[in-house]
Write a structure and sequence with these properties.
With 312 residues, the chain is of the alpha+beta class. It has one domain: Nucleoside Triphosphate Pyrophosphohydrolase (Alpha-Beta Complex). It contains 10 helices and 12 strands. The strands form 2 sheets. Strands 1, 2, 3, 4, 5, 6, 7 and 8 form an 8-stranded mixed beta sheet that branches. It is globular. Pfam families: NUDIX.
Length: 312
Amino acid sequence: MGPSIESLLPPLTPESLRCIYRLQRYVPPVESRRIPRKRSAAVAVVLFVGRLGDLYVLLSTRAGDMRTYAHDTALPGGKYEEGDVDPEGTARREAFEEIGLPMDREKVVKLCEMEKFMTGNSLIVTPVILIVTDHTLSPLLNPSEVGRLFSMPLSAFLHSRPSQIPSFHYRISHRLSKIPYWVIDNIPPPPPVLYAQGLGGEDVIGGKEGRFYGYRDIQWGEGKVRFHRFLTGRESEGVKPVYGLTAAILIHSASIGYDQAPDFDVQAPGQKSMMERMTHEIRQGEGPLRRAVDQEGLWEDWKGDQDVKAKL
């Protein structure tokens, strides 16, 4: 039996240590239906220990000449490639290619995998939570993919105000105070078509904007989907807020790790689960995800029966 995780890390707050243990023990619900490889992807939720013993997550700004989501704030990640054994393999390879995160599994330890998410272009994304145990590591950014790297406390994604995040309060409040009010008030919502996670709807039907946290509700068929937004304090430098899929993954990761519900409503009224939306996209849609299911011979996994189809 190898050394315990806390023996490999700098001093941790009790809350951070409990968070790590919960993530280590976390097992997502078993899903027997197979995902087509052509539409599979993974992201790395890379955690490290800050100076005060709190857990931070690495975030990147995508390069400006990327074909999709240029300049967006994101987690390292990308599509499955031949040779990737599993989602962890995809996440590690992408993190190595984008920010130089070592492939060494002792220096960067896997804590768990999370439930799958669906992107606006119908990719099925598996978040893989990793923690850096070697504090001497230095990032090596790939300029063709990443513009800059920064971090936020993982716990920030449970709160609507930075004052509720002790290790983050002064720093982000100081930064936000230097951002002219018209910059924050006029941050446009990202085009819903890019972030609607395969939902097919683009109408913004409600929302709320705050100095740190806000959300937009997007119409999807007869239902709604909520997209969350967190400011980073770097908006005056051109850094976009954490939004959409990235925000959703970090909210879920923090909720599991800290065993705490956010102080805001995660879902819009009547919002369907991610698996329900994914199932609808495959059974009723005609897009790339449904085509990949057919091409890879996975329809038997997803076809269901007529009663289930009727309920969708």
